[in-house]
Design brief:
Layout (H helix, E strand, L loop, with lengths): L21 H15 L9 E3 L8 E3 L1 H9 L3 H12 L5 E7 L3 E6 L1 H13 L14 E4 L12 H18 L4 E4 L7 H13 L22 H17 L1 H15 L3 H24 L14 H13 L4 E3 L2 E4 L13 E4 L7 H16 L3 E4 L6 H13 L8 E4 L5 E2 L16 H19 L7 H21 L7 E2 L2 H4 L7 H20 L13 H11 L1 H10 L3 H21 L8 H24 L9
Parallel strand pairs: 5-6, 5-10, 10-11, 12-13
Antiparallel strand pairs: 1-2, 2-4, 3-4, 7-8, 8-9
Helix pairs in contact: 1-3, 2-3, 4-17, 5-14, 6-7, 6-8, 7-8, 8-9, 10-11, 11-12, 13-14, 16-19, 16-20, 17-19, 17-20, 18-19, 19-20
The structure holds arginine.
């Protein structure tokens, strides 16, 4: 089973694919039959069978319709089956249990369909099915806070959405919404003022100029921050000083702004290097600071419109609604000291994104623990008329990466491991695993390094994406790097195996021929899996669930490996069969390349 049926109802994508998937074709046929029998078309929904040992597809609409129609579901099913009659697409229909319709495709239809898919550079997956531009907010790094294992998730999931929507034909804008304007800035300013009070940045009367060199390196900054943070959390007076400095920064005090610019510059340099190591990029790096002027204007306007209200000295925007089953507190816009907050910048960001990009959807790939924040921001944006109902706002939250002890992942020394170090560790371990498993040992050294990087990245990406994004998972690099089982390296290995078979075939002057009807179970199962790619791409995008595509890719790799065990492609005597088999594995490679590419995994040429 590749995934549990089509999850419908979200309608992110328009429902008119260019080349229909098996389910779409069958759903059409059965929808028409239900309509012919006097029921609604939607009862003809066909899904991939949960019991592949019994049948390939199922339609369970007779049961759904029987209650309202007050008729026996088996009789309804029988009438529908009768109405469908014999068709070239189908080999077999039967009624099971209380009224399920079991369906198998005709082998000749299976082959004809895959011939079309094989001719299509998109492997049957339609483009242009998304209504407009999509803004994806992911990465979410912060100045002076080193990225850690948790940031893998924002980056990996966000990039996957960006690939998916781009592939489906939407213009995509990726933006990492750099955290560069909050209280942590005031904390750093105060900490540095204490260490080096002689520096010109702290002279309240000074208007510059300031030294051309940053006063701190990124390493120093990263060391200062946790200490400053601890201190402010423990000491209310230190916190008050940090908050005051933050407000002064936000109001443009020249020395603080100059200092802040250095903090941002040295941090961004480090962040860019880490993201690059991870193979992740963004179209925009618009930090929270970018929105300062917009926050001022927005808050003034909301005040004038009477939407913003005073509450205990602060300014808030109430967002509760009639019928709320839990309390949704108001969104904080401005503290009593005049400082703007995280939510204020998110609201101003929405206003900017609407004007600048005019998207049909904005997706936030952010830790699921921020769901209340996004609920408040989204409601505020609707209430203030910043984002119309027609534009979809989605918080695609994700769970936590834990260590083997079930707590957030740490190093053996108990520190939070920095992302860059973690990636170096993963690539080094991937290299060792290749030695242990005898993978790519005949390749030159620099190629082995390159393969290790691809294997390491695939291991991380697949381990992350194969879980539903809302679940937590345990960071277990030994497991992720296995060449067997449901892992990234297994998938790369399978794809490379196909490349090598095709190279051997080419050396023997054998080339793919015309795909023919299957003659064995292994062949038929591989062909079915090859036909399911478009539906899994669609479901993954529609429900923001890359795990669906991971399941498909793993299922396909398994079917390929079973097929290759049974069908000795290179030794087959019947030239037409051999040509068909080569065409099937060529298609398997094309589809895997496409799917793994969407998941952010790169397939080496050899391993
Ligand atoms: N920097 C934030 C954090 O560390 C994440 C930003 C997410 N994006 C947003 N638009 N709020 O929590």
């Amino acid at each position: 089973m590749y995934f549990a049926g089509l999850i419908s109802g979200t309608q992110r994508l328009s429902p008119t694919p260019a080349m229909a998937s098996f389910q779409a074709i069958l759903t059409d046929i059965f929808g028409a039959a239900f309509a012919h029998c006097g029921f609604e078309r939607r009862f003809g929904q066909v899904v991939i069978s949960q019991r592949p040992d019994l049948c390939q597809f199922q339609c369970n609409g007779a049961l759904a319709v029987s209650k309202a129609a007050r008729q026996n579901p088996r009789e309804i099913a029988a009438r529908v089956v009768d109405t469908v009659g014999s068709r070239e697409e189908l080999s077999h229909m039967s009624i099971a249990g209380p009224g399920f319709i079991n369906i198998n495709l005709a082998p000749s239809f299976l082959a004809a369909h895959l011939r079309d898919v094989a001719r299509d550079p998109r492997c049957g997956t339609p483009a242009g099915v998304i209504p407009g531009k999509v803004v994806i907010d992911y990465g979410g790094p912060n100045v002076a806070k080193p990225m850690h294992v948790g940031h893998l998730r924002n980056a990996i999931i966000g990039q996957c959405f960006s690939n998916l929507f781009g592939f489906l034909g939407s213009p995509v804008v990726s933006d990492n919404h750099l955290g560069d304007w909050g209280t942590q800035m005031g904390m750093l300013i105060c900490a540095l003022a204490e260490m080096h009070p002689e520096l010109p940045y702290f002279d309240a009367g000074s208007r510059g100029p300031y030294p051309g060199q940053p006063p701190v390196s990124i390493e120093e900054l990263e060391a200062i921050y946790p200490e400053a943070n601890r201190r402010c959390k423990a000491d209310p007076e230190a916190m008050a000083r940090a908050q005051k400095a933050t407000v002064e920064l936000q109001n443009g005090r020249p020395g603080y702004v100059a200092l802040w610019k250095y903090f941002v510059d040295v941090s961004v340099e480090r962040l860019k290097a880490d993201f690059e190591k991870l193979g992740v990029a963004f179209d925009r790096w618009l930090g929270e600071s970018f929105y300062q002027k917009r926050m001022e204007d927005l808050v003034a306007r909301l005040k004038k419109q009477g939407l913003a209200k005073e509450s205990e000295g602060a300014l808030v925007l109430p967002v509760s609604r009639d019928g709320d089953t839990r309390e949704i507190p108001p969104l904080m816009l401005m503290k009593s000291d005049g400082a703007f907050l995280y939510g204020t910048s998110d609201l101003a960001t929405l206003e900017f994104r609407m004007q600048e990009f005019n998207p049909s959807e904005i997706i936030y790939v952010v830790d699921i623990r921020q769901s209340l924040h996004f609920e408040q921001v989204f409601r505020a944006a609707r209430r203030a008329g910043i984002v119309p109902e027609s534009v979809r706002l989605e918080h695609a939250g994700f769970g936590t990466v834990n260590g083997p002890d079930g707590r957030p992942f740490k190093t053996r020394e108990g520190d939070v491991m920095q992302l860059g170090d973690l990636l170096d560790m993963v690539y080094a371990r991937a290299y060792e695993r290749m030695v242990e498993a005898g993978v790519a040992q005949d390749r030159p050294e620099d190629e082995k390094r390159d393969i290790a990087r691809k294997v390491g990245l695939a291991a991380l990406r697949f381990a992350d994406l194969q879980n539903h994004r809302t679940s937590d998972y345990v960071f277990d690099i030994e497991k992720f790097l296995q060449f067997e089982g449901k892992t990234g390296p297994y998938l790369l290995y399978s794809a490379v195996r196909i490349k090598s078979i095709l190279r051997n075939a080419a050396e023997k002057r054998l080339s793919p021929g015309e795909i023919a009807a299957p003659q064995s179970d292994a062949e038929q199962n591989l062909m079915l899996a090859l036909g399911h790619l478009p539906a899994s791409v669609r479901t993954a995008a529609d429900t923001l669930a890359p795990n669906v595509l991971c399941d498909w890719a793993y299922g396909l790799a398994q079917q390929f490996n079973r097929f290759y065990r049974d069908c000795h492609v290179l030794r087959e005597k019947d030239a037409r069969r051999q040509g068909s088999w080569l065409a099937l594995i060529r298609l398997a490679l094309d589809e895997l390349t496409l799917a793994l590419g969407l998941l952010g995994m790169e397939i080496p040429d050899r391993m």
